[in-house]
């Protein structure tokens, strides 16, 4: 009779699945407005799409549209909600959902690893 314990991310003969530690890896999603837009006087707000669970740690976040805005998440959602707001009037001039593609960085295991994501929002 053979028995085995799977207590780490490593698997052994006879074990059916890998047990991963209960830690979440935070990922920064960097969102920038397309360079085709004149971004002077605009702000960008990034958050979770309506009705979705995104695991954002610090969102929604906003910032000057001339610079990328970064939001952190642990759930790696497939999309983020982006709004472009005119600073002087506080009017939303564009909004939409942008798909997120994650890129693994650094050491990876069967349980995952660090990642990064960059989104270019083109509201036009």
What descriptors fit this protein?
single chain, mainly beta, 8 strands, 124 residues
Using the alpha-carbon principal axes, give the shape: elongated
Query: What is the H-and-E element order?
Result: EEEEEEEE
Beta strand %: over 45%
Can you tell me the residue ranges where pLDDT is under 50 for at least 5 consecutive residues?
1-12
- Biggest sheet architecture: 4 strands, mixed
Q: Termini distance?
A: 65 Å
Average pLDDT, all residues:
81
Number of strands: 8
Q: Cα-atom Rg, whole angstroms? A: 19 Å
Count of DSSP H/I helices: 0
Description of the structure:
- A four-stranded mixed β-sheet has the order 4-1-8-7, with no helix packed on it. The chain has a four-stranded antiparallel β-sheet with strand order 3-2-5-6, with no helix packed on it.
- It has strands spanning 27-33, 42-47, 61-64, 69-73, 79-86, 92-99, 102-109, 112-121.
- A hairpin with a 2-residue loop joins strand 7 (102-109) and strand 8 (112-121).
- Helix content is 0%, strand content 45%.
């Amino acid at each position: 009779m053979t028995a085995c314990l799977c207590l780490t991310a490593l698997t052994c003969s006879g074990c059916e699945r890998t047990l991963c530690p209960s830690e979440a890896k935070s990922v920064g999603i960097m969102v920038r407005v397309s360079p085709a837009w004149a971004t002077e006087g605009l702000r960008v707000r990034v958050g979770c799409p309506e009705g979705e669970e995104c695991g954002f740690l610090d969102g929604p976040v906003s910032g000057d549209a001339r610079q990328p805005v970064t939001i952190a998440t642990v759930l790696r959602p497939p999309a983020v909600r982006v709004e472009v707001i005119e600073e002087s009037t506080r009017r939303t001039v564009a909004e939409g959902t942008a798909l997120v593609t994650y890129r693994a960085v650094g050491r990876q295991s069967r349980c995952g690893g660090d990642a990064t994501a960059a989104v270019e929002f083109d509201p036009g």
